[in-house]
Amino acid sequence: MNLLGNIKIALRALRANLLRSSLTVLGIVIGVAAVVALLSIGRGATASITSRVSSLGSNLVTVSAAFRFGPGGAGSSGSSLLYSDYQTIVSTVPNIAIIAPVYQSNETVSSSTRSASYAVMGVTPDYMEVRSYTLGEGRFLNAGDYVANSPVVVLGSQVAADIFDGLPPMGRTLKIGNTDFTVVGVFASSGTSTGTSSGDNVVLIPLSTGYAKVFGSRASENGKSTLSSILISASTADAVDSIISNVELTLRSNHSLGLTDTLPFSVSSQAQALATLSSITGTLTAFLGVIAGISLLVGGIGIMNIELVSVTERTREIGLRKAVGATQRVILTQFLIETMTLAVMGGALGIALGWAIAAVVTLLGLITAKVTIDVVLLAFFSAALIGLFFGIYPAYQASKLRPIVALRYE
Amino acid sequence: MIEVKDLTKFYQIGDMEVRALDGVSLKINDGEMVSIMGPSGSGKSTLMAILGCLDTPTSGMYWIDGEEVEKMNENQLANLRAHKIGFVFQQFNLLPRTDALENVMLPLVYDGMPSKERIERAKEALEIVGLADRMHHHPNQLSGGQQQRVAIARALVNQPSILLADEPTGNLDSKTGAEIIAIFQKLHRERHQTVVYVTHDAFTARHTERIIHLADGQVKSEEIVAQPLIAAVSAPRETDANKKETAMKQEAVV
Predict the structure, then answer these.
(1) Of the candidates B129, B105, B149, the residue with the CA atom closest to the CA atom of residue B246
(2) Under an 8 A CB cutoff, do A5 and B109 touch?
(3) Which of A31, A127, B87, B91 could serve as A100's disulfide partner, Cβ 3.0–4.6 Å?
């Protein structure tokens, strides 16, 4: 009995039981498709979150006033990040490539037709480089604006479109608080505009203009200008850790805090943020993986069900095949080939379907799903194993029986 | 030629030991046509299964063409079933959803015969049983008698030295049963085919040359039939109406 002959017997048996074969394939298809689609979506979500965080700029260290709750919280003496802290850091901490102080405040922004509340940020000309934004048109804030307290503003593409009802924004005037500002630049649309970290929803004005004309007394503490955060880009990745400790030391000395006192600021690197995020997305992927695993299990139970239901018929078929001269080995080979054919067909269709689902999700712009080879292999082999086991095991049992017993199997 | 000596087959059912065969010795010569007769529970089907190598005896000896069967391993037994024995079941045992030709070809597939030759041989076997025109019908499109004829063709296709049939007419009406017996007689007469069939019906048994009477797992007597009855050779073609009727009577196969 050669292999080709065996394949022919198996295919003939599959064709003779088309409905059963199709249902088994369907079970595998569902399981594999679920695993491929869900894990790909999970991977895609992880990748998009990670890349978004990375796009904030590598080597980035963020200094911000920590949130404080209860009486004596934010705003109480000594807790605010000061503009003078920024100046001390610039002059004392080495290995800084770019440093950008930020004061952020929610302000009413209005054009002649629209009015809405936006997070308005007072920044210095270095801000754009730290955040790696790209200009769509016009220019960014420059040193001249900063020195002259110019009433100029640079907008994210989404804000520009919303506030001016789609009219060309360049050169137009809008009000921030009670002050008129002229639009001098608009960022290019980043395309994936969700979350506040993209450049599409920002309203940026010179920090000096903000202090002078917009933020008012909220931005000062005991007569000193305050900041929401300071963004620092390290000259090399290796310098990140030393910058963090130096900045912390500087802040402690500026605010008269001992080494053991709780620092009311957070000084963190992108690497730390990434670590936190990847643990979150890891959980997300694991969660989706569990759902996918359940689908696979359900698919597997479907296969098992069909195989077990057909076991009576197949036991008698095996009895007959033995009665007319088939050896146990030939019968097992037949069932192995049958099951493998079903697993391969179901696996291939399932991968295609899962891929299609992932593609549709990507196309709808929900999440850029990433189909990776390990996910495909995992799905395929687990489904194939389930199919193989439930296909082969009853056949193995039946093939061991004496033909007369198998033929009389009820 | 087949010969068995002191064949026993015991089953354990709960605390009770059932002696289905209790020391059976018999001999069937080449070219003989023999029936094994007995009431239900006499052990005739058990004997048949052992003769067909579908079951193993508890003890005793068995030779086919001088070869000792009880010493054979699984593969040798499979080889024996493939080449020496043709078995016809009461329940027909055809593969469903598989046409008559493929059912008949089944034993040849395990023989590794080229497919062209297989088809030729299967067609010949179907012609012998008068079903050449139905070779692409599935079992559910055939009447009980036709299904049994397909089963006989399947048993014949490997040109076995012995054709065994376990109550081949048990699921058929008497007229259709006669057609089946007629086929056995024709095979015996024209091709000197050794035929052994089991029946509980004395009339059916009298169509053979020798009757072995079985009771309580033992051979009670042997009877030579001086003038075997001749079964109706050319039964009228079945009409669609009674085909349906017989189809309804038959049990589900395999």
Answers:
(1) B149
(2) yes
(3) A127
Question: pTM for this one?
Answer: 0.67
Of A222 and B131, which is predicted with more confidence?
B131
- Collapse the DSSP code of B24 into the 3-class scheme (helix H, G, I; strand E, B; otherwise coil) and give the result: strand
Question: Residues with Cβ < 8 Å from A382, sequence gap 6 or more?
Answer: A31, A35, A296
Chain A neighbors of B106, CB-CB under 8 A: 320-321, 324
Class of domain B27-57+73-249: alpha beta
Kindly give the pairing relationship between strand A179-187 and strand A152-155.
Answer: parallel
pLDDT at A30: 86
Q: Which residues pair with residue A137 across a beta bridge?
A: A186
> From residue B50, how far is each of A285, B27, B208 by CA, in Å?
60, 14, 21
Q: Do the chains contact at A322 and B81, CB–CB below 8 Å?
A: yes
A37, A358 contact by CB (below 8 A): yes
Residue A138's Cβ-side half-sphere holds a number of Cα atoms within 13 Å equal to 22
- Computed over every residue of chain A, the mean pLDDT equals 84
- Are A185 and A194 in contact by the 8 Å Cβ rule? The answer is no
Whether the CB of B207 is below 8 Å from some CB of chain A: the reply is: no
Does the pLDDT of residue B50 top 90, yes or no? yes
Residue A375 amino acid letter: V
Q: What is the pLDDT of residues A55-107, one digit of tens each?
A: 666 688 889 886 544 444 444 445 789 999 999 999 999 989 999 999 999 99
Q: Higher-confidence residue: B238 or B84?
A: B84
Cβ of A323 within 8 Å of Cβ of B96? The answer is: no
Is there a contact between A332 and A395 (Cβ–Cβ < 8 Å)? yes
What ipTM does this complex have?
0.88
B contacts of A313 (beta carbons < 8 Å): 96, 254
- C-alpha A90/C-alpha A98 separation (Å) is 9
Concatenated DSSP letters of A213-274:
IISGGGGEETTEEEESEEEEEESSGGGHHHHHHHHHHHHHHHTT--TTSPPSEEEEEHHHHH
Residue B211, helix vs strand vs coil: strand
DSSP class of residue B40 equals T
CA distances from A385 to A17, A211, A299, A304, A354 (A): 21, 67, 12, 12, 19
Distance CA(A129)–CA(A133), nearest Å, equals 7
Pair of tokens at residue B213: 């009477």
Average pLDDT over residues A198-221: 88
Residues of A with Cβ-Cβ distance to B254 under 8 angstroms: 313, 316-317, 320
> Would you call B54 and A404 a contact, using CB atoms and an 8 Å cutoff?
yes
- Say if CB B157 and CB B121 are below 8 A apart: yes
Q: Provide the pLDDT for residue A77.
A: 47
Average pLDDT over every residue of B57-76: 93
On whether any CB of chain A is under 8 Å from the CB of B73, the answer is no
pLDDT tens for each residue of A156-182: 988 998 899 888 999 999 999 889 999
8 A C-beta contact, residue A124 and residue A207 = yes
Burial tier of A364 (Cβ tally within 10 Å: 0-12, 13-18, 19+):
exposed
Q: Is the pLDDT of residue B251 over 80?
A: no
How do beta strands B67-68 and A115-123 pair? unpaired
Collapsing DSSP to helix, strand or coil, A285 comes out as: helix
